[in-house]
Design a protein that fits this description.
This protein is an all-alpha fold and 185 residues long. It has one domain (6-174): Arp2/3 complex 21 kDa subunit ARPC3 (Orthogonal Bundle). Helix content is 80%, strand content 0%. Helix 1 packs across helix 4 (60-75). The longest helix has 28 residues, at 147-174. It is globular. The two termini are 17 Å apart.
Length: 185
């Protein structure tokens, strides 16, 4: 039996491409104007939450991150920092699977706590990886003071993106665009 059907593949392919295009076009402008790193996290987490909601299958979030990374590096080869977001995708996929999709998505308060918590953890993890592996240490300490503060800024993007993602899935569910949760999750 096939694990990912064509609907799942289309979803994570489209979401991955959307994430890459938004990150390549909008995020560098925001970064050059403010030197604040949270727009990429905000875009990424909201898209990953949509992917989770749409597919509800382990590996779909990671596949979205892989596609986004490939497209981003194809368009902008110098954007190696995107590997941090790929790691965040893997972590978010593992965390949501470990607690169960039904618990993460069913009730509004539970979904908010789970998805916001996991968004914060995974984007802070991305910030640590990006700061430690892909940034100039002098620039990092001069601009942000420490790796911890840089990771906290990424986590801020996770909070904003998590809220956006939760609002989007609730709005789409209310409008009947996305299917309701199955009992076999």
């Amino acid at each position: 039996m096939v694990y990912f059907n064509t609907r799942d593949i289309a979803a994570f392919s489209l979401f991955g491409a959307l994430w890459a295009v938004l990150s390549v076009t909008i995020s560098p402008i925001f970064w050059s104007l403010t030197h604040l790193p949270f727009l990429c996290d905000m875009i990424g987490i909201s898209i990953l939450i949509l992917t989770l909601w749409w597919t509800r299958k382990f590996g779909a979030i990671l596949m979205t991150g892989i596609i986004a990374t490939i497209v981003t590096l194809a368009i902008r080869p110098s954007a190696t920092h995107f590997f941090g977001f790929l790691a965040a995708s893997l972590l978010l996929d593992i965390l949501t699977r470990s607690i169960g999709y039904k618990r993460c998505l069913s009730k509004a308060i539970t979904a908010m706590i789970c998805l916001l918590g996991f968004s914060i953890i995974s984007t802070a993890f991305a910030g640590v990886i990006i700061g430690a592996l892909f940034m100039n240490p002098y620039f990092l300490t001069k601009m942000f003071g420490s790796l911890t503060f840089f990771a906290a800024l990424h986590a801020t993007g996770g909070v904003i993106g998590g809220v956006i993602g939760i609002v989007l899935i609730r709005a789409l569910e209310t409008r009947g665009v996305l299917p309701p949760l199955d009992d076999n999750l």
